[in-house]
Design brief:
The protein is of the alpha/beta class. The chain has nine helices and twelve strands. The model has no long low-confidence stretch (mean pLDDT 97). The structure holds NADPH dihydro-nicotinamide-adenine-dinucleotide phosphate and oxalic acid (OXD).
Length: 315
């Protein structure tokens, strides 16, 4: 019997273990710190594992990330070399992210916050609205999540572009890539959405200099930022300063440098900020356990794994 270990110090692993037992009844499922003999663990699924725990699993075959992002795993400086890391790529998670991106692009586009304020004050103000085709959305990160969101936004009529590390070709989406493509991409973008992974290259990328390169000829006279990638990408003082100075019209932020977001953060009360507690695309335990169980079944039959992480790229 193969054995499987959850290492999730910041979540209750019990619920995940119950789902995993349903998805793969033949696995011996354990939850850290109750892991038995570490040398007998074949598979581990982790999120923010404490140092040396994964390393102690000397017979480990595969590491599963319990999210699409893998920074929470790669952060472990003691991670053993040579063990493959598989991340989540599942239609359920992708659709949740697309819902989030579409919701917040539409929220800014249809000025829902202004309408909410007017309703609270009993103000009937039928201000002019504009067509989706008058708004240019730019998505940073054209991976699994970025591509899906881009295509759904294009279907709604928005002018959509995307930016990635390597060149892409996507129907209905203008694609830019690399450092050479960034400024042109930013200059045509009214609503910037980040769905980038956290890597040394993307650290702090959402800063004042980048914000100043965004288009100012859109319907709101200043751009909007939506970040559902990772908090490490945002220079939070720069974003607040850009909002205060009117260089940003508004922002929706799902991720933060420190999570939970500290009570004293100005993001909580800023009138132009909509914030959510890192829930853009939740990992549903039943869905993710089925996904992991399927990967293990294929791996035990064929030795093949999909959605492998490239450690040298960091995603
Ligand atoms: P993918 O690995 O499929 O896509 C990542 C994209 O980012 C790729 O297009 C990649 O380019 C691009 N990219 C990476 N580095 C750079 C760079 N330096 N410059 C330009 N482009 C770059 O990831 P997913 O789409 O599945 O997920 C993206 C991220 O979303 C996750 O890493 C995670 O951080 C975040 N996330 C957030 C959630 C939330 O609830 N807020 C939930 C799930 C994920 P290329 O295509 O050329 O490789
Ligand atoms: C993920 C996340 O990476 O939930 O899946 O942030």
């Amino acid at each position: 019997m193969s054995s499987f270990l959850f290492v999730t110090p910041t979540w209750d692993g019990g619920q995940w273990a119950a789902e995993m037992r349903k998805a793969a009844p033949a696995l011996d499922v354990r939850v850290w710190p109750d892991m038995g003999d570490p040398a007998t663990v074949d598979y581990v699924a982790a999120w923010l594992p404490p140092p040396n725990v994964v390393r102690s699993l000397t017979g480990l075959k595969v590491i599963f990330s319990l999210g699409a992002g893998v920074d929470a795993i790669l952060k472990d400086p003691t991670l053993p070399d040579g063990v493959p890391i598989v991340r989540v790529n599942d239609p359920d998670l992708t659709m949740r992210m697309t819902e989030y991106v579409v919701l917040h692009v539409l929220m800014h586009h249809r000025q829902q916050r202004r309408l909410d304020e007017n309703q609270k004050k009993g103000i009937w103000d039928g201000f002019p609205t504009h067509a989706a085709s008058g708004l240019r959305v730019g998505i940073m990160g054209l991976g699994v999540l970025g591509q899906d969101a881009a295509q759904k936004l294009a279907m709604l009529g928005f002018k959509v572009a995307g930016w990635s590390r390597t060149p892409k070709h996507l129907d209905g989406v203008q694609c830019y890539s690399g450092a050479g493509g960034l400024d042109t991409f930013l200059a045509r973008t009214d609503i910037l959405v980040s769905l980038l992974p956290a890597t040394p290259e993307t650290d702090g990328i959402l800063n004042r200099a980048l914000i100043r390169k965004l288009a100012r000829s859109g319907p709101f006279g200043a751009p909007v930022l939506i970040n559902a990638g990772r908090g490490r990408q945002q220079d939070e003082d720069d974003i607040l300063a850009a909002l205060d100075a009117g260089e940003l019209h508004g922002a929706t932020l799902d991720v933060f440098r420190t999570e939970p977001l500290p009570k004293e953060s100005r993001f909580w009360t800023h009138p132009r900020v909509t914030l959510t507690p890192h829930i853009a695309a939740d990992s549903d335990p039943a869905v993710i356990c089925n996904y992991v169980a399927q990967q293990i079944a294929v791996y035990e039959r064929t030795g093949q794994l999909s959605n492998l992480v490239d450690r040298s790229r960091g995603y």
